[in-house]
């Protein structure tokens, strides 16, 4: 099974990923009960260590850990060592001294979770909750879970599923993790962006590349729209928001190009009117809210499997034995 | 005959073993193994004997950042690595952009008494790239500066670079360029490549080095001035320099041990010990650099010894300082902190 840490979607085999998704599916059933709590991680300490503001990801992890009865500490590290606060090392040593069993880290620097896991500062599990422009593996897992529910009736892998990821691929950790994971699960991925927002060497990625969203949409089972950050305009990645929206935004006209059953995903928060129109965001084909719910289940599964929960405990009814 | 030293059975430049007798500061005799005597004997069997090494590119951090390195600790490390002369780059605090600072560095080197410390003078005031520093004053100071560089930063303004190249002709100086287009490398964290794309680290593209070198060799040819290119790191740079030399342009170039030995793949560990500027490049670049050393396109191996305090490397990649250690000895892999 997956190792001690979850640092990158690339570290997951297809069997690992399917096991996580299956476990998430079982946990989703359990937490549909009136009492949503399992005793699995009672007595274990889980820390959310967030160097970047991200309320939605943090509370998703927090809820996941609490539903497994872990003690949760939220450590909002305002300002990393980049901005002359406490260093990552000292923060890590502090958490280690407090006996953290798992540290869920969100950090603006690509690779920060690797330092946390490999520098010898802490013993516990490290879960990457988004590092710079590198990876966000649990987002990819929740996206895969959502896709599997809609396209594959909630079981197996995603063999043959056609998924387009549209937007700022260059700066997107969501895109990196999704390309890796969806490919591992057998999906055919196409990334769509203006050439300025594609990473150097994207042709070596295990996906197709297109500059033209209208070409791609008729041939997908799902499209994932990525948020466009306002600061990209200062970097001359595209002329202005309006032109971006015109060429790459998903509106009703474009959604009509998609096959009838195809769905729309967005990792949130959405820029309505930029990469996605309000009509699309509010349409039944957009599964954005479902993604949020699935995020909790997938993160429960990751915590459960990393911290060594036993399968039979899933069978336990209600909160406590 | 007092205080003579016998270096026994060493191999000068890797040739056949001989005994070498040193008296004072001179080689007094080179003799067949086993035939010479002296007051002290140094067994050099199995060793290669070389003249003292000269390092054209180092950072001794003094004045201003003595917690990273001092002229004394740097001199000790250099001597241990076989160097007898090191050039100390100007990016100290204050910057070595006046006769006063370069003389201070030079005198401190003499006081330490282990290696010749030759200060490099800044090209522009405060390394800011706006106004020429007092190159003439540094040249005629006691330190007799002849190498000028804003190393760490590129003399990016083409007109200023031209003027610097021209101006130093008056005292037979050379401008050593840190070739890095600043706009093309904003926020850069590693070599721009398939790997940087996958790791999500902002790329430092080869073209940012090559375009500056191309401009500068043309400027050097146009002005008839000497250009030296610091820490060449890409195959494309090698091609540009090879072309310039084939045209008789007055350019010399250096490469570092780490760019001749290591590749960007090490960055995937996210261990900041491998964070350096210019960044570690691809295998093809390493091979091109090695070929360039062999065919003389690259004239000099210089270490770019760039020490930092431990806390500046014991952190996340983006927060870490750029630089590797170059000595003890320079041809071994860079040491961990």
Helices and strands of chain A, in N-to-C order? HEHEHEHEHEHEEHEHHEHH
Strand content of chain A: 5-15%
Which pair of chains forms the biggest interface, and how many residues does each contribute? A-B, 30 and 24 residues
Query: What does the main sheet of chain B amount to?
Result: 5 strands, mixed
User: What would the principal axes of the Cα set say about the shape of chain B?
Assistant: globular
| Portion in beta strands of chain B | 15-25%
> Major β-sheet of chain A, in short?
5 strands, parallel
Short account of what is shown:
The complex is a heterodimer of chains A (321) and B (337). By secondary structure, chain A is α/β, with parallel strands linked by helices.
Structural features, described:
Chain A is of the alpha/beta class. Chain A has two domains: 9-136 and 292-315, Aspartate/ornithine carbamoyltransferase (Rossmann fold, 3-Layer(aba) Sandwich), CATH 3.40.50; 137-287, Aspartate/ornithine carbamoyltransferase (Rossmann fold), CATH 3.40.50.1370. Helices cover 35% and strands 14% of the residues of chain A. In chain A, strands 7-6-5-8-9 form a five-stranded parallel β-sheet. In chain A, β5, α6 and β6 (188-192) form a beta-alpha-beta unit. The longest helix of chain A has 19 residues, at 288-306. Chain A is globular and about 55 Å long. In chain B, the strands form four sheets. In chain B, strands 1, 2, 3, 4 and 5 form a five-stranded mixed β-sheet that branches. A five-stranded parallel β-sheet of chain B has the order 9-10-13-14-15. Chain B has a three-stranded parallel β-sheet with strand order 6-7-8. In chain B, 28% of the residues lie in helices and 19% in strands. Chain B is of the alpha/beta class and 337 residues long. Chain B has two domains: 4-43, no CATH class; 52-319, Metal-dependent hydrolases (TIM Barrel, Alpha-Beta Barrel). Residues 330-337 of chain B have low confidence and may be disordered. Chain A binds chain B through residues 80-82, 87-89, 107-112, 114-115, 118-119, 131-135, 171, 173, 176, 199-202, 204-205, and chain B through 189, 192-203, 205, 269-271, 311, 314-319.
